[in-house]
Amino acid sequence: MKKYTLRNLFNDVHLWLGIASGLVLFVVCLTGTIYTFKEEVEELMAPEKYTVEVPANAEPIATNALIAELEQELQGQVVSISIPGDKASSYSISVAPVAAAGAKKAEGGGRPATYFVNPYTGQVVGTPESATAEFFTTVMKLHRWLLLGDSVGRVIVGAATIIFTFLVLTGLVLWFPVKRKNWKQGLKIKTNAKWKRVNHDLHNTLGFYSSILLLIMALTGLCWSFEWYRDGLSSVMGAEVFKGRKEKPMAIAAAASTATPEDYIQQANLLLPYAGDLRLSLPADDTTAVVIQKSQTGFFALAAADKVQLNKHNAEPLKVEKFADKPLNKQVVGLIKPLHLGNVYGTFSKILYFIACLVATSLPVTGTMIWINKLRKKSKPKKQARYGTAPVAG
């Protein structure tokens, strides 16, 4: 009888956890793969909403005039405006409905609606709603909740993600061969071998190459699944995860306003002197600061925004937060979402994440096939013994 080793234990843990969670992980990884290039697909399907024709020697309409025009046309109050660094891109405007006199509640529950606007003409060219957007909403619900709702689906996906973390770690242990001289075999796929060997290499080798990114996806994804995990990670990192969701703009004293949105943008560009995407958030009252976020763009651009808070009345700087000046722990915590989605380093990291997610989607399939092949291999000797030639009596 062979001795049961630690390696056997890792192999059994890897096998049975993989079988138990295979279907859920397949769905989660497949939807994650599809969702990676959500923005690019939406722009491809409806380019008229996202890109505009730039007239020769033309400049965008002044922000003040554009906001005034849109508020009159859309019968609401502009609460934010996103200005892309690309001159051929449309602006994204959020408009909050204004309640009619004497009405208890504005139509639509008072939630801001988003519009895409041509900055050179002021024309509304579309909204985020589309068949493509609905498709990706369904993909997201599958990814996070398996379409089972938050209370049930979130727990199932979270448990599968914990299992996935153990699968990646035990898989790394099993990747290292018993004989160290054979370690190079785990770095390549033997394409000229039989399909069983090719399938094994696809599972073993591709799993190894994508393991780091898969671990990052799993460990960051758990922040959406379990509050206890999110709190624990915040404690370990010394910085609160998703703190930005709770942060409110600074309070200021009420006064007569002389500054305009154009002044806010000019001030932000002076404080953050680089080309990039800019988002201006306008408060509805006179006692809240104006918030501007600005981020760099490009193939390798880091998905991190610098933040400026200005006095609404005179555009004087109240607070400037540059991402590069933050401690490392706060930088890492601030990048939890882009680290999970894959856009942490722009298009470059998206491509890497897409490939890693595609590999992750294949792992439950190739792993199951390896298990079935082993079962068949074990059953052959038993069949041969059962149907073999009977000994001849002497």
Would you give an account of this structure?
This protein has 394 residues and is of the alpha+beta class. It has three domains: 6-39 and 133-239 and 347-378; 47-98 and 107-129, Roll (Nuclear Transport Factor 2, Chain: A); 243-326, Nuclear Transport Factor 2, Chain: A (Roll). Helix content is 52%, strand content 11%. It is built from twelve helices and eight strands. It has helices spanning 6-35, 38-45, 47-50, 63-74, 131-145, 150-175, 195-225, 227-237, 261-271, 328-334, 336-341, 346-387, and strands at 76-83, 91-97, 113-117, 124-126, 277-281, 290-295, 306-310, 317-321. Strands 4-3-2-1-5-6-7-8 form an eight-stranded antiparallel β-sheet. Strand 3 and strand 4 (124-126) form a beta hairpin. Helix 7 packs across helix 8 (227-237).
List the helices and strands and how they pair.
Elements: H1 6-35, H2 38-45, H3 47-50, H4 63-74, E1 76-83, E2 91-97, E3 113-117, E4 124-126, H5 131-145, H6 150-175, H7 195-225, H8 227-237, H9 261-271, E5 277-281, E6 290-295, E7 306-310, E8 317-321, H10 328-334, H11 336-341, H12 346-387
Antiparallel strand pairs: 1-2, 1-5, 2-3, 3-4, 5-6, 6-7, 7-8
Helix pairs in contact: 1-5, 1-6, 1-12, 6-7, 7-8, 7-12
Instruction: Identify the overall geometry.
Output: elongated
Structural class: alpha+beta
Q: Identify the quaternary structure here.
A: single chain
Helix segment tally? 12
Mean of all residue-level pLDDT scores = 90
Can you tell me the residue ranges where pLDDT is under 50 for at least 5 consecutive residues? 100-108, 389-394
Overall radius of gyration:
28 Å
Strand order of the largest sheet: 4-3-2-1-5-6-7-8
| Beta strand % | 5-15%
What is the element string, with H for helices and E for strands? HHHHEEEEHHHHHEEEEHHH
| Number of structural domains | 3
Q: Largest sheet, described in full?
A: 8 strands, antiparallel
Estimated helix fraction: 40-55%
